[in-house]
Amino acid sequence: MNTKSLALALFALSCAPWLTAQPVDETQLKFAVVFSRHGVRSPAVANSTLDNFSVLPFPAFGIDPGLVTSHGAAVETILGGYYRLWLTQEGLLTGNDTGDAALVYIRANVAEVTTKPTAQAFAAGLLPGASVNVYLYPGSSDPLFDPVGAGFALLDRRMAVAAVTGRLGGDPQSLASAYAPELALTRSVLFGYPASQTPVPATPEGKLDVTTLPIAITAGRAVASVGLSTIAAAVDPFMMEYAGGMPGADVAWGLLNAAGVSETLRLDTLTLDLAYRTPYLAKVQSSNLASHVARSLVQAATGNATAGALGTPSSKLIVLFASDVHVSGLAGLFQIGWLVPGYPKNYSAPGGAMVFELRQSQTTGEYIVRTAYIAQSLDQLRNSTALTLAAPPAIAPLFIPGCSVRNATYDCPLAAFVKMANRAIDPQSADLVN
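^ thats the sequence. predicted structure below, dont judge the formating
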């Protein structure tokens, strides 16, 4: 045996006790909060605008912009069915849909037309034998998701612009070089030439080259990356075409496969990262949601009604539906990141969710919080793939800085989770009622 083979053999032997002695999970799931993005939809921007960015017309979805498609609803129901299998196996649901429905609280962001249909489709898979109410806040802005728009969280606009610009070395234009490969790919798709072509062709007459738009950071009710947000709008249809099951010839005019779609999505993720994961913005925009999540976990553990919690002390499952901006903001506030195969880092997939499990040790009685990001893969979305416990969606355990311990699922003692959340939350931006 050579030296290299001997070293590998010794390494394998040294790992054997660790590989065979992983602790059995003796915790029991007692409660969960699922915070999800809406399902597959039509592009957020109308084709009449998108067509100004491309040499060929964008494929038509046949519905108005920003609406959940029939395919999107169907794959969301498949996802709800997976949660049904998982939560029933865990003992959180009983399989008696009528009885379980009384223990489930579902809320959708009233300001988004995508969220209620997504919630209803999910509920059809989760509890197919029951009628489930989807709660909508009685107003135009739900303070749970949009505390700034609802009027009680105050965004300092100058601070917001400075916080984002400061992450860019004071020069937003530096993003053009940092993301040059993604921008080059996007331009080649929009204008219909090979990405490897040099020199690149001129912009077609009458068309707008979105990849050369000046980038500026502005703030109103929220922060916008002018120029960059237009680029994100231009690549958004590629994701929805692929995930929506369109023929290959209609996915970016046949020029992108799944990997290419994922590469262009880095520009979309960048836009959300700046506007929602920037620490100051995450604190103002996501503290109310974080407060409600933490208080709901405490309410479930204690069995006592808690101000600022969702549902009731008897609730077993809270499911919240909003958009990728809100998922990104909460993740940014808690400094959580994920990487799911086939997607860019920290991308919030259609139907993808951060899941906060409240579990209790059966030996010590201690409550812990276990967090994961769950999402169907691009191909599971595209192909309407059936999900089972043996063939689940992608599941990525999430490490929470200042809270997680060093086990495979990055568990947090509930007390440590609450302390971490309280450090992150801005109490001036959190409402104990709404």
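Strands lie at 27-37, 104-108, 134-136, 216-219, 223-226, 317-322, 353-361, 367-375, 394-397, 412-413.
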